[in-house]
Amino acid sequence: MNGHVDRAVVGNTHAGSDTVSRLHGAIRNINRIGPLCYRFDEVLSGT
After folding, report:
1. Which residues contact 37 (CB under 8 A, 6 or more apart)?
2. What is the pLDDT of residues 6-15, one digit of tens each?
3. Domain range summary for the chain, segments of one domain joined by +
């Protein structure tokens, strides 16, 4: 029983850290293209 629980916990932790790393990557990309996004928002608002 403990083996199954440990596997589940490890799996959840791995999935969580993967999500966090993806989030960090997305934030980095947003910081890089932030001005472009603001311009895009302005264009959308204008139309």
Report:
1. 30
2. 555 555 566 6
3. 1-47
